[in-house]
Design goal:
Pfam families: Lipase_GDSL_2. The protein is of the alpha/beta class. The chain has 14 helices and seven strands. The strands form two sheets. A four-stranded parallel sheet has the order 2-1-3-6, with helices on both faces. A three-stranded antiparallel sheet has the order 5-4-7, with no helix packed on it. The longest helix is centred in the N-terminal third of the chain and has 23 residues, at 70-92. The chain is globular, with a radius of gyration of 19 Å.
Length: 308
């Protein structure tokens, strides 16, 4: 329980601010509290995860960052959980999906850890849909899926948190890394966060850590494509954080070089992507997009050779 004498700042007014550039937490105006909550998980930040963050304190921190009350956040989380369950049930009702999902535990083993950035940290994302589907699968296979993804993470930052992976004693690590490696920082400096050469090296290092330290299987998953027009339309003038198709393409080339056996999401999607794949920023998949992702990822995993 949270001690009553902890001096925490009051949540910000959740009403949209006058500043057209975004909210007090740097989020654009289209990202309301329900959307922001999908990607906000302070309990997963490495320093917090290392010692374990009290759930009530985690709610306070998440709510303060989002700009709502803890009670409102809990209401949002419940809505997300219900949406996740309905979406998982709909997937399981699709022809062939349950059969493909039922083959995944033989590939991953009983303890799966998922690594990634906000695309994977999403409470309505492919990783949580995978976990929900496995829980609701007839026969309920004994598989735990632990999502350690942290919004904004690069491949380098994922290496730095690998001790948390080892603690989970995974039998398989699924890693969708790279979108933030191509992120540009600074309105004037325009600095790329991680170079393609570093991305390739980091993905190889993550595989080595997974196999040598965790003694488990490593499956790299290439991040999905972005929509440049959508991003440019929603990014404020003088934005200090930017993404481009060219940078993401360079990252994808590095990911493919580091992991020739990658689950190549962009290649699997091909030209089938529709406008409703993304939320307004053109970087993060919508629930529709995340559902498309989990279909492809489950299909790809089901085709891999069984573990062991």
């Amino acid at each position: 329980m949270i001690e009553e004498n902890i001096d925490l700042p009051a949540p910000r007014d959740p009403a949209p601010p006058a500043d057209p550039g975004g909210t007090g937490n740097g989020a654009p105006l289209w990202l309301d509290d329900a959307a922001a909550a999908r990607y906000t998980h302070h309990s997963r930040l490495p320093l917090h995860a290392m010692v374990g963050l009290d759930p009530e304190l985690a709610d306070v921190l998440d709510a303060h960052f989002i700009g709502c009350t803890p009670d409102r956040l809990r209401e949002i989380r419940q809505q997300h959980a219900e949406t996740l369950a309905r979406t998982a049930d709909a997937l399981l009702a699709e022809p062939g999906f349950a059969a493909r999902l039922a083959r995944v535990p033989a590939v991953t083993g009983p303890r799966v850890v998922v690594l990634g950035d906000s695309i994977t940290a999403d409470s309505l994302g492919w990783a949580d849909l995978l976990a929900a589907g496995l829980r609701r699968l007839p026969g309920s296979p004994s598989v735990t899926v632990t999502n350690l993804s942290v919004s904004g993470s690069t491949s380098a930052e994922t290496i730095a948190m690998f001790d948390l992976v080892v603690r989970r004693r995974p039998t398989c690590v699924l890693a969708m890394i790279g979108t933030n490696d191509g992120r540009r920082q600074g309105a004037a400096a325009d600095v790329r966060t991680v170079s393609p050469t570093e991305t390739e090296r980091n993905l190889r290092a993550l595989r080595t850590l997974t196999e040598a330290d965790a003694g488990s299987r490593f499956v790299a998953i290439a991040p999905p494509p972005m929509d440049q027009d959508r991003f440019d339309a929603t990014a404020p003038d003088g934005a200090t954080v930017r993404f481009t198709v060219d940078d993401l393409d360079a990252t994808l080339t590095a990911v493919r070089a580091a992991a020739p056996d990658v689950v190549d999401v962009p290649a699997l999607l091909g030209s089938t992507i529709t406008d409703d794949f993304w939320v307004p920023d053109g970087v993060h998949p919508s629930l529709t997009g995340q559902t498309v992702l989990v279909r492809h990822i489950v299909d790809a995993l089901s085709r891999l050779a069984p573990a062991g």
